[in-house]
Amino acid sequence: TCELPRALAALGRRGCARVLLTGSVFEGGEGAGSEDLPAFSPYGLSKEMTASAFRYFVARAGMRLGKFVIPNPFGPFEEPRFTAYLVRTWAGGETARVSTPDYVRDNIHVDLLAKAYADFAASLPEAAGFDAFYPSGYVETQGRFAERFAAEMRPRLGLECGLDLALQTEFPEPRMRVNTDPLNGAAMGWSEASAWDAIADYYKPQLSQYSAGRALTNG
Asked: From the centroid of its chain, how far is CA 33?
């Protein structure tokens, strides 16, 4: 937000009437869920403050602000987080442990999220005002999502994809945080089966590296 008023003024002089900002479902007050929707973390707090500043200054500039709120994307080229951990563990011949299976989250295929973003950007009006969009994917517990992911990867990767769902007794994060606008992927020209294929195709070349790394560690 540094120099945001000057940046908006420069954009306005060039005829720009619309600003699109990405937000996070982990911001305070965003999405739907439990514990009165607090900010998840300093990151969520920073995104909340950024959005407030944008909404204030974009309105003063007489422009349109669109806010696109992102839940939990997953798919090819994902940061090495939950699904990458699952595949890495399975490739090493081990059972993946899900330590927080009872959290309810909103996981969405990254290519479906991208389509939703493009559609929202293209449809944003030029008249001054504010619009927000909360694209939603699989709203379910992390344990159920892990089971879904495993069921899709077994036939595609040829791995056992075993899971061990822990008994969760601590909840330092809100139990539930999800987005609220379900997407009709088929109407958007998106194929769920093809999205799962793309994930498997992305990980297949890496399976031998994961298994070799596990063998070296065990050796």
From this structure: 16
pLDDT tens-digit readout, 76-87? 998 889 999 999
- Which of 27, 23, 47, 37 is closest to 175 using CA atoms? 37
Question: Is the model's pLDDT at 214 over the cut of 60?
Answer: no
Q: Annotate 111-152 with DSSP letters as a single string.
A: HHHHHHHHHHHHH--SSSEEEEE-EE-EEEEHHHHHHHHHHH
Per-residue pLDDT, 210: 75
Contacts 24+ apart (CB under 8 A), 84-90: 86/146, 86/149, 86/150, 86/153, 86/161, 87/153, 87/157, 87/203, 87/206, 87/207, 87/210, 88/210, 90/150, 90/153, 90/157, 90/159, 90/160, 90/161, 90/162
The pLDDT of 174-198, averaged and rounded, is 96
- Quote the CA–CA distance of 5 and 162 in Å, as a whole number: 53
97-112 pLDDT tens trace: 999 999 999 999 999 9
The torsion angles phi and psi of 63, rounded to 5 degrees, stand at -110, 175
Query: Which residue type does 21 have?
Result: L
